């Protein structure tokens, strides 16, 4: 199953970065961001798309009451700002670095259109990514609207297991080594960090999982 929350089945940076194309390499630079730096704001002109070389970026928007809503947290190899390719003129979301050393590959929309026109494989991968991302955001909205917090967490953990997990040969547990903090996970499932911690501890007491900062272990059920 592809993840609702992120796109990890291909490292888009390795495929799409203009550094991979001789005609664009000499004029292409990377941008560096620290934690809490904004890459763009809502209403900014949409004239670029972005690839993450390293670090993490959150994508979101603010409600009329000023509350922050997180749509996605993206990691190395992922693309964002892609609606500019489809003709979006102004941003309807913000993008913010949440790592102290985030490196971003910015690509002008004109450059992207040139690359897509000249390379059919490149174009296919871009459109495949955009289609999958829209489906995942739609699924995530459904989860946030119609599922309780514990169910959202369980479904998120299953998605996380599909993308980052492996089965431990010793006991059959599923081990998930992931790049997300508890704050990241709480934001993605639409809850607070204290509530997430309570739910994780409840699941631990029920012998469903065990966890630490870098790893979640889904315990195999015994007959």
Description:
By secondary structure, the protein is an alpha+beta fold. The protein is 37% helix and 24% strand. The chain contains seven helices and twelve strands. It has helices at residues 12-16, 22-25, 109-118, 120-146, 149-164, 182-188, 193-205; strands at 31-33, 38-40, 48-54, 57-62, 68-74, 79-80, 94-97, 102-108, 165-167, 174-177, 209-211, 215-218. The strands form three sheets. A four-stranded antiparallel beta sheet has the order 1-8-3-6. Strands 2-7-4-5 form a four-stranded antiparallel beta sheet. Helix 3 (109-118) crosses helix 4 and helix 6 packs across helix 7. The longest helix is centred in the middle third of the chain and has 27 residues, at 120-146. Mean pLDDT is 82; it is low at 1-10. This is Crp/Fnr family transcriptional regulator. It comes from Microcosmobacter mediterraneus. Keywords: DNA-binding, Transcription, Transcription regulation. Residues 147-222 form the HTH crp-type domain. InterPro entries: cNMP-bd_dom, cNMP-bd_dom_sf, Env_Response_Regulators, HTH_CRP, RmlC-like_jellyroll, WH-like_DNA-bd_sf, WH_DNA-bd_sf.
Mind sketching the topology for me?
Elements: H1 12-16, H2 22-25, E1 31-33, E2 38-40, E3 48-54, E4 57-62, E5 68-74, E6 79-80, E7 94-97, E8 102-108, H3 109-118, H4 120-146, H5 149-164, E9 165-167, E10 174-177, H6 182-188, H7 193-205, E11 209-211, E12 215-218
Antiparallel strand pairs: 1-8, 2-7, 3-6, 3-8, 4-5, 4-7, 9-10, 10-12, 11-12
